[in-house]
User: What shape does this take?
Amino acid sequence: MVPAFSFRLHRRDGVARLGEIETPHGRVRTPAFMPIGTQATVKGMYPDEVRATGADIVLANTYHLMLRPGPERIAALGGLHKFMNWPHPILTDSGGFQVMSLAALRKISDEGVTFRSHLDGTMYELTPERAIEIQLLLGADIVMQLDECVKLPATESELARGVRLSLAWAERCRRAFERAPPGRALFGIVQGGDDDKRRQQSARSLVAMGFDGYAIGGLAVGEPQDVMLRILDEVAPLLPERAPHYLMGVGTPDDLIEAVARGIDMFDCVLPTRNGRHGLAFSRFGPVNLKNARHADDPRPLDDASACPATRDYSRAYLHHLVKANEMLGAMLLTAINLAYYQELMSGMRTAIAAGRFEAFRAETKEGWARGDIPPP
Amino acid sequence: MVPAFSFRLHRRDGVARLGEIETPHGRVRTPAFMPIGTQATVKGMYPDEVRATGADIVLANTYHLMLRPGPERIAALGGLHKFMNWPHPILTDSGGFQVMSLAALRKISDEGVTFRSHLDGTMYELTPERAIEIQLLLGADIVMQLDECVKLPATESELARGVRLSLAWAERCRRAFERAPPGRALFGIVQGGDDDKRRQQSARSLVAMGFDGYAIGGLAVGEPQDVMLRILDEVAPLLPERAPHYLMGVGTPDDLIEAVARGIDMFDCVLPTRNGRHGLAFSRFGPVNLKNARHADDPRPLDDASACPATRDYSRAYLHHLVKANEMLGAMLLTAINLAYYQELMSGMRTAIAAGRFEAFRAETKEGWARGDIPPP
Assistant: This one.
C-alpha cells in the first residue's frame, strides 16, 4: 500500500513551523531544502551521496526533461525515480519558469505557451493540461501547476496578466490532475510580483480552489530581500495552516532562515550546487571563496567540525588547487559541501523549532556568518 | 616501521608473472593497472571510489604538479598522499614525457630540458637531479628516472640520442636518488623506439647500473600493436626476473593481456578515464559507445553481472541521457565503470596465473570481446 500525500504540522515556534510531508516515495521533514536535479541528476553528485547529505526530496525540471529525454520515454523506462536511481520523493516544477528564461520564440496565450527548444529548435506547446500530463508521466510525488512567473520590476499589466493567467491555469491544472494516480499532490502557485494586493488576491483565489500545498512563485527574480520578506509577511498568513508552504527558487542561507521565520516549509535553489561548481562554499563561517589565494597553503579542512566527509577530509589547499586546475573533483566536493551545509542548516532549524528556540538559533547562526571565515594559520 | 620497497614473484604461467610489490604505503598486486591522477586527482572520482574499483596504486604527473601547485608546496602540506587523500602507493613519472607533449619552447641538452609552462608561460628547467628532487618532495613510493621519449616514426639520430640521453640521465638519477628516504624505489626506463638493437643496448646498460624496477618507455606512441609486442618479446627477457617490469602508457584491454603474456607486471594509461569522459565504456562485451542512440530506450544496465555499482545500478538509457546532456554524472559513472573493468581484467589475469590457466583466460576474454555487446531487448 503506497502512502498518500499528507502534511502534519508538529509544532509552531513563533511563526516558524515544524512538520512532515508524507508522499508515495517517503517522508519529507520540514522545513525542507530540495536540491535541484534539473536533467534527472543533481550535477556532480551520486544519488546516494545526495541522500547522505540529508536530502529527503529533490526537484527535477519539467522543461529540460520534456525536451530530453522526453517524458513518454521516462515513463516507458519506469518513471523518473527509477531512471535517476532516486527512490525517494521528487517534486517537479511545471516547466513554465524555464520556458520564460531559456526557450526562444516563446508565445503566451490563454491556452498556454508555445516555444522553440533551446537544444534543437523544435517547436513545443506547453498547456496546463500537458504540464500535468508530463509531470504524471515522470511520476512526480508533488506536481506543480503551470503558472506565469513575471520578472521584476514589472508593469501593472504584466503583473495583472501573471495573476490572471496563473489562476486560470491553476483551475485547469486541478481538473487535469483528477486523472492522477492516488496519493500524488498538486500545488498551486501564488503570483502577483511585488504588489501586495495582487498577491493577496492570488493567494485567496487559490485557497478557495483548494490545493494540497501552496507555493509562492515569482520571488527571488531580481527584487531586494526586504521586498521578498514583505511579500512573505503578507502572503504566508493567508495560506492554510494544514498545507505546506513552498517558496520557489529561494535562496541564500539567510533567505532560508528569514523565510522559515515567516512560516515557509519548503525551498529549492540552484545556489548551493551552482556556486559549488564555481568554487564558492557555504559554511558556518559564511561564504568562502576557494579560488582565493589565501587558501593555497592552508592545510586545514573547510570546517573540521562538519559531519560531511567532503568538508572535513580535504584541505583548503587541495580544494583551492582543484578549483584552480578546473578539476571535476573540485566541483564534486564543493557541491557536496554546500548541499551538506544547506541540509545542516535545515536540520538545525528543525531541531530549534522542536525545542522552541528558533529565535536563538537564528541569532547564533547569523553571528557565525557575521564573524566570517576562520583566519589563516 | 615503514616497509621498504620489494618485489616478490609468486608464480609464472608461461611468461606471464604473478607477483606483489611492497611499498612504504602498502602492497601492489601484479599484474597491476595504475589509474592516472594527473593533477593529484583521478578525474571525476573520489579517492575512496578509486580504491573501491580495486586499484592498489595510482600514477601522478610530475610535469603538471611541478607547475601547479608546486612540489615544495605539496611537501610543506605533508606530501602528495595526504594532499590528495590517497594513503596508498603512488608512482610519479619524471615529467619528461609531458614536457615533450605539452610544453612550449622546449630545448633539450645533455644537461636537461628547459621549457615554457603551458599554463602561464614561466620558464622551467627539468634536469635529472630536479626530476628526482621533485618526486621526493611529492613523496612518491616509486620514482621514475628522467628520460627522453622519442615519438615514432623517428630517425636513426633521434633514436640514438633518446637512448644515449636516457642512459646518461639514468645514471645521474641514480646518484641523485641516493638522498631518498629509506624504502623508496627508483625505476630505470628502456628506450630505443622500434629498433631491436637499440632496445637491447638500452636494457642491458640499465640492468648493469641496477634499478629497483625497469620500465619500457617510448611505446604506444604511434606504432602498430605488433611492433610494440615485438619489442616486448625482445626486451622483457633481458630484464631481471626479480624486479617489476612496467610498460608505460599502455593501453587497451587487449594490449594489457598481450603484454602480461610477455612478462609485463605494471601498466598506466589514460584510456579508461579519458574514454569514460567521452561516453565510451569498456566491458566484457568489448567497447560500448553510450552516445549511440540504440541505448536511448534500453532499461538494462551495462552489465548486470558486474560487481561495480556504476555498471550494475544505472540503465543504459540513463547513461545515454547523461552523456548526451553532457552531465558530470555521466563522466563520473563511465570513469568508475571503466576503472572497475580494467581492475576486473587485472584481477582476472592474476587469478588465472595463480591457477596456471592464463592462456585459457586470455582466450575466453578475447572471445567475450569478439562476441560484442549484448543485443538490444
